[in-house]
Every structure is written in C-alpha cells, then in structure tokens.
Amino acid sequence: MPSGSSLTRRSTFRTVSIGFCVVAVTALTSCSEPTSVSPPVPSTSAVEEMCDTLQPKLPKVVVGQSQVKTDPESKLTAAWGHPSITFQCGVDEASGVAPDSELITVNGVDWFPQQHQSGYLFTTVGLAVNIAMSVPDQYKPETSALADVSTVIAQVVVTKPKG
C-alpha cells in the first residue's frame, strides 16, 4: 500500500507541475505581445534627435506596469502594461489648447489633458518636443503615470523658445 500512495503523489505532482508550466507559458506569451502604437512623424531632425535621446532614459516601470514592446518598434514610442499606457514623442501640438486652457503640471512639465471614452490623452505644452501619453481608466488617477515620466522629460527636453 505505501508504494501506491507514493505513486499517486508523483502523478499529482506531475499534473500540478505540467499545469503550472502551461499557465506560466500562457501568461508570459500574452504579456509579451507588443502593443500597437503609431510612431509620429517628427517635424524636424532636431525633434527626432531629442526623442532618440529621451526614449532609452524612460522608466522601465510606470505605475507598477513593466515596459512592453511596441509594434512597430520605434524610438519615438513606448508602452507599459496591459491595457497599455502609451507614449509618443514628436507628436503635433494638442488640438484644443488655448492660452487659457487648464494644464496639469507634474515635476515641472505642463500637460494638456483630454478625456476620452476609456481614459485620458495627455500632451505636453511648452516644450521643444511635443509628447503624448494615453492612460487608460484602469490606472486611476491617470495623472500618476505622468509623474513616472515627467522627471525624465524635464531633464532631457528643453522648453520651447518664447516668441
């Protein structure tokens, strides 16, 4: 009898181990799928160079979400988590920005918020390079994502010359 119970334990252990491996592989596969983010077309080579300098300095984690690959891969884009928080460097100025628009200032960077059906689109204002971040509702308060990237942006991107 003792040998039968040990055989049962091994079978159970193998079943649990195989089941765990299938779950782990499935989780890794689904998490590693790239996020679709359209790279913007920078207005000048100076903008593209600044984005190239900024991208590798972006944090690997934003609001607890690890950075994921983007599709297509580009030095002008980044993404974190699923659903993804997306980053685009070199975008056009935000539509709807006016001199009296309410801005959110995070770590020295001004952002223009635009609420959408499933979250917010934040676009920088007053920098030599316009940056957009899309933050899904799942990451409330959505402005928390800005805190994780604004410090790096303030260190790398210069303000737009007045005039």
Please give a structural write-up.
By secondary structure, the chain is α+β, with helices and mostly antiparallel strands. It has 2 domains: 1-32; 36-156, no CATH class. The chain has helices spanning 2-31, 45-54, 143-156, and strands at residues 35-36, 61-62, 65-68, 70-71, 77-80, 85-89, 104-106, 109-116, 119-125, 131-136. The protein has an 8-stranded antiparallel beta sheet with strand order 2-3-5-6-10-9-8-7. The chain has a two-stranded parallel sheet with strand order 1-4. The protein is globular and about 40 Å long.
List the helices and strands and how they pair.
Elements: H1 2-31, E1 35-36, H2 45-54, E2 61-62, E3 65-68, E4 70-71, E5 77-80, E6 85-89, E7 104-106, E8 109-116, E9 119-125, E10 131-136, H3 143-156
Parallel strand pairs: 1-4
Antiparallel strand pairs: 2-3, 3-5, 5-6, 6-10, 7-8, 8-9, 9-10
Main β sheet profile: 8 strands, antiparallel
Strand count: 10
Straight-line distance between termini: 90 Å
Order of helices and strands: HEHEEEEEEEEEH
The percentage of residues in β strands lies in 25-35%
Multimer state: single chain
Low-confidence stretches: 5-30
Helix share bin: 25-40%
The helix-and-strand class reads: alpha+beta
Mean pLDDT over the full residue set: 84
Gross geometry: globular
Work out the count of structural domains: 2
The strand line-up of the biggest sheet is 2-3-5-6-10-9-8-7
Number of helices: 3
- Radius of gyration over C-alpha positions, nearest whole angstrom: 22 Å
